[in-house]
Amino acid sequence: MSHSSQLSAGAPADERRLTPYALACVALLTVLGFSLGCSEFVVIGIEPELSEAFGVSLSRVGELISFFSVAYAVLTPVLAITTGRFKRFTLLVAYSVIFIAANVAMAFAPTFDILLASRVLLGAVSGALLAVGVTYIPELVGVKRTSLMISIVYAAFSVAMVVATSAGKLIAEALDWHVAMIGVLAMAVVTCVVLIAVLPRTGTTDEVSTMREQAALFLEPQILTGMCIFIFGVGSVYVFYGYITPYLETVLGMDALGASSVLMAYGVACFFSNLLSGWIDARLGMKALVATFPVQALLLFTLWLLGPTMPAALAPVLLVGLSMYFVSVPCISLFMRVARNRHPKALTLASSLEPMSFNCGIAFGTAVGGAVVSGPGLSQVGLVGGAFSLVACALVAVTLVLDRRARRRQA
Fold first, then answer.
1. What is the pLDDT of residues 373-382, one digit of tens each?
2. At 36, is the secondary structure helix, strand, or coil?
3. How confident is the model at residue 298 (pLDDT cuts 50, 70, 90)?
4. What angle, rounded to 10 degrees, do the helices at 328-342 and 146-161 form?
5. Contact 349, 264 (CB under 8 A)
6. Within 13 A of 408's CA, how many CA atoms are on the CB side?
7. What does the DSSP 8-state code read for residue 7?
8. pLDDT of 21-44, one tens digit each?
9. Which of 23, 54, 124, 338 could bridge 71 with an S-S bond, Cβ 3.0-4.6 Å?
10. Are 42 and 180 in contact (CB under 8 A)?
11. Closest Cα partner for 72 from 234, 265, 256?
């Protein structure tokens, strides 16, 4: 039986039965999310080692995160718009090859400039690869199950935080930072090979689309404000999280083992944050973010107020992790719903907006965090992050109003 026939072809999207093949594909996409997350976050756990190995400042090492995120944010939608005439599976293969090549360059970079270039290449393709993968989910499980399954795929990023930051830190301490990079490379190779072998060759999103048909999605004002929510909402956390390892070691005075343990606990909190994001979206949608962002702001302000107070400061650190991904599924559901209803040929672009916008937030937050670290100091990141969370809350309110007006016009 072909892959396509195993998807219960002919059944309405919301009534399709979950087959073992569909569940296996979603599991593989979850592993892809894990692999992409490991490639992205591995440098966060080994920032001090990279600074020493290449003889550059800590703020310069932060560019490995911000440059990755800028490339991710800029090229993810560009690739989605300009590759509409290619089959989805062809793109999956091409992006997988580039993803593996970038990981090879990152693992064996002889200079910091080459390492930085590999991060740019990695960021350029990671969002596009994830966006193509996510478009399979509605076909595999039906529209009604899409939010939950997307939240599971994105939860894999949280697991990647645990492995790539805490375990990566321990590996760098015990062996060498190159070993952590090579482990990430091995994961990328295995994941991409299995994905190419298993995922369907054809599907409903293979219809040819023009750049104009896809770019029309940006004419929807709630799409634009929804993207801005990520810039400030994710940026608020990454002002702090982009420098969490030196924060734990310098501000809170933790040793390498203690910092690795906190990073692992933080990753577990983020894992549940992703799952809660799907649960929140299924029940309340975007409206829930009106409440979650003020809570996130309070946690970041508390982190600033407590300063080096231990162990009290650990509570807001972990709770920030629990709130970190609440924004993801409600926003991606908004993007994909608007595309399905008004711009059906822009579904791939819509699925790319969440990772693109998320990494805009990472780049913005990490860049601001670097300025804070170089200026007022690490202890002030919570204050700046909290202010950004409040801006994100205001943007949620604007987005809800715009979306309500658009629905009325369509009705």
1. 888 888 888 8
2. helix
3. very high
4. 140
5. no
6. 6
7. G
8. 888 888 899 999 899 989 988 888
9. 124
10. yes
11. 234
Tokens of 78: 């560009």
Cis previous bond, 311, omega within 30: yes
- What single string gives the DSSP state of each residue in 113-128? HHHHHHHHHHHHHHHH
How many residues make up the chain in this entry? 411
Give Cα 48 distance to the centre of its chain: 23
CB 237 within 8 A of CB 324: yes
* Amino acid code (one letter) for 136: Y
Instruction: Give the separation between CA 353 and CA 227, rounded to whole angstroms.
Output: 7
Please say whether the beta carbons of 380 and 362 come within 8 A.
no
| DSSP-based helix, strand, coil % in the chain, nearest 5 | 85, 0, 15
Cα–Cα distance, 348 to 351 (Å, whole number): 5
The whole model's pTM is what? 0.71
Cβ contact 89:200 at 8 Å: yes
Tell me the C-alpha distance between 106 and 110, whole Å: 9
Residue type, 359: N
* Separation of alpha carbons 404 and 400, rounded Å: 6
Listed in sequence order, the residues at least 6 apart from 250 whose beta carbon sits closer than 8 Å to its beta carbon are 378
